Amino acid sequence: MCVCALQTKNQENFTYDEIVNMMRRNPDGAGMMWNDGKSIKYRKGYFNVDEFYNDYLKIRKMSTTKEIAIHFRIGTGSNIDVANCHPFPITSVKKRLKASHGSCDVGVMMNGIIGASTQELSDTALYVLSNLKPYYDFDRRFFLHFTKNNECLFENEIYGCRFILMSKEGTRLFGVGWSDYEGKAMVSNRYWIPKKVDFDYYSRLWDYLDSYDYDDLWNDKPQRANRFATKKKDKRHKSYIDYLEEAVV
To answer: Has residue 176 got a pLDDT over 90?
Structure first.
């Protein structure tokens, strides 16, 4: 399962460790798209976390950047390459779908599986060609103009998936499962977030161990085991070790 996240201009940046966690759990390529007020810019095909994070910080610092969406991919059958990383522009030109960077009118990211894929193109790229491009040709801002019925039909169509559709006029999230991550972003899932250690539990454990009275324990004199008896009159019990020694040939 991939992960994607949407951040507005005033939200705090992801930390390096958070980006590392996302890429570690989704290692098949990363990408980003952002709204600069004129169009949607995108870069994709990152397989190095340092390169991704450096570019991410530079784009976040740009005064023209309004929103940014990031994506980390797990391959589901198509090639693990630059072409199948997210985002994708809404276009029917395969060369543009596969491009590592550029600008577009509407950018798309997706978390989930929305149909079959080929080695050349992922399920998301094929869905852009077969479904989103016809919607776009009918209304270039279809996702901003949905009626309640339109939105219900679209949600049913993408059932189980989560989409980010971004244009310079606005961005929409679709699908069930989006949640706020510490006020930093809306994220498509949370399985990449490391579990926090309950330090209160450990502090209570250390307090208990510190208060334990070990004096009686250390003052007890150990009893010599009967199996080590030196006198014939001492009762000697056959031990588990004796059985093991007898079994050795």
So the answer is: yes
